[in-house]
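User: Here's a chain of 146 residues. Predict its fold as C-alpha cells.
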Amino acid sequence: MYRRILIPLEHSTYDQVIVDHVRQLATLCRSSLLLMHVADGWAARNQRSLQLRESEEMRVDREYLETWCATLRAEGFETDSLLAGGDPAAEIAAAADREGCDLIAMAVHGHRGLQDVLYGTTANSVRHRTMVPVLMVRGPAGGKRR
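Assistant: Prediction complete.
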C-alpha cells in the first residue's frame, strides 16, 4: 500500500511517537522510510542562496537524523535521511514529491484555537501543499525540543 513513507522529525520528544507508529505501518506494508528534518535557523534558510557552510545547528540535526536511521536500519528497515533548510511545510511537501513518497507521517502537537493562530501548524500547511496523503499522529501534551 505505502512503498515509501516520509517522516519529518522535529528533534523533539514528538519524534518517538511518530516513529513508533510508523514502525508498525512500515512493517505491514514493507515500506522504505525517509527521515527528514528541516533546519530553520538563519544559516539553514540561507545556505543555498549565500553558499554558506553547514552551521552547527545543521551538523547537530544531521547527526540526529543519522542516529535515527542507524536505529531503524538495525531493526531491518530500509531507511534514508534528508536534511533541508528553509520553510518546513514547503520543504516537506517538495521532498515528498521529489523523493517519490506515497505517505507523509507527522506528529502533531494538538494546539487549539488561539495557539494554532499564534504558533501555526506545519502539518496543516503541508496538507494544503501536497497531494500525497498525510497521516497525523498526535503527540503527548508538553512535548519538548531536545
